[in-house]
Each structure stands twice: as structure tokens, then as C-alpha cells.
Amino acid sequence: MTDAIRTIALVAHDNRKPALADWVQFNRGQLDGLTLISTGTTGGLIAERTGLDVIRLKSGPHGGDQQIGARIAEGGVDMLIFFWDPLEPMPHDPDIRALLRLATLWNIPIASNESTADFLISSPCFQAYDRAVPGLGN
User: Fold this and answer.
1) pLDDT tens across 95-124, in order?
2) Contacts of 36 (CB under 8 A, 6+ apart)
3) Contacts of 115 by beta carbon, 8 Å cutoff, 6+ apart
4) Going by DSSP bridges, is the β-strand pair 79-83/110-111 parallel, antiparallel, or unpaired?
5) CB 20 within 8 A of CB 10
6) What is the structure's pLDDT at 138?
């Protein structure tokens, strides 16, 4: 099935939240009209700074990462933008690893920083891509 990216999950560790909000603001025109899903605090910051509608789930440490992972497994997320902080240990690291594992398993494009997010959003595949989904014979 060839489709454009419709739903993007946005996640950021505390030290990276401002950078993600800046990135979303810079790319507001391309993101407006898409479904944006985010963990609680990050989603609040993005909505406040950009004026975009963001579906806010629980905060990451309170289950938000798992909620996004569940949506990925159900086919409800097309891309994950997760600005994580590689220098800061996270107490909910198992949840983060599970989220990244699910995104990889379900062949969801993942951006972990501004450069990769820029590449993804500027790719022709952002408009139409035939993503192989596990278990569907692709």
C-alpha cells in the first residue's frame, strides 16, 4: 500500500524538548494537517509553541512511551521523531528501548535528531511510500 505519512509520533527527553519544539515550529507548514501524537509534557510544549493540534498521551515515565508503542503495533503511527538525550541516563530506559524496538520491528522511520528528522521530512517518501509491514507478506 502506497501512502503519504499521516501520523507522526513526537517524543523528546527533557534536555531535548526545546529542540524538538523548535524543529516542529520550523516545519509547521509541512506538519499542519497531519495527526501529531506525543507524550504529555512534550506535546504540551509543542502545542503551546506552534499552535498545532497535538494528541497528548501520558508522560513518558508514566506510560506514554508504551502508549505510543501500542499505537505503532496497531498501525496507527507512520513515523517516530524521538529526540533523545544520549548523555543522560533515563530511569524508564526499558520503556524507551521497547518503543524503539517496536518502531524498528514495524518498519517505522525513526529520527533521533534534527538532521535525521530533516532528511525524513524532506524525502519524496514523505509524500508516498510503500512500507513493508511484518507478517503481511512484504
Assistant:
1) 888 999 999 999 999 999 999 999 999 998
2) 7, 8, 10, 24, 43, 46, 52, 53, 54, 55
3) none
4) parallel
5) yes
6) 47
